[in-house]
Amino acid sequence: MSDEMRVKLDRTLCDGFGICAKHAPEYFSLDDWGYAVLVGDGNIPEQDRDAVQRALLDCPVHAIIRIGERRPDPTPIAPLREPDLEKLKTEDNEAEWGFTR
Predict the structure, then answer these.
(1) CATH number, position 56
(2) SS3 sequence, the chain?
(3) Can you give the residue range of the structural domain that contains 19?
(4) Which of 1, 34, 64, 73 has the greatest number of C-beta atoms within 10 Å?
(5) Is 32 contained in some domain?
(6) What does the record give as cofactor (predicted)?
């Protein structure tokens, strides 16, 4: 892990809880309406990493994002299985899986 971490703040997600400003006031302040504002360029030195990490983890709406993280989960999506149209049951409104209306 490098000596610095980088974060960004997605202000469109912020709901104004102010937890980030409580944990790391050097890096997060609140605007006139109570929403968070990132102070500085988002580069966090080693000595302040714990406070900013706590702010990131405690944000109820996940508005603080560590740059370099991948969101959402990169798990590949399995391709859809197409039904075999030759064997598709259509009598009496019965679908391939046995559902009826």
Answers:
(1) 3.30.70.20
(2) CCCCEEEEECCCCCCCCCHHHHHCCCCEEECCCCCEEECCCCEECHHHHHHHHHHHHHCCCCCEEEECECCCCCCCCCCCCCCCCCCCCCHHHCCCCCCCC
(3) 5-67
(4) 64
(5) yes
(6) [3Fe-4S] cluster
- How would you write the pLDDT of the chain (101 residues) with one tens digit per residue? 455 699 999 999 999 999 999 999 999 999 999 999 999 999 999 999 999 999 999 999 999 999 975 556 677 778 888 877 777 666 655 555 555 55
> Largest Cα–Cα distance in the chain?
70
List Cα–Cα distances, 11 to 6, 8, 37, in angstroms.
16, 9, 7
Cβ atoms < 10 Å from Cβ of 5: 19
Q: Does 40 fall in a domain?
A: yes
The answer to whether residue 74 is domain-embedded is no
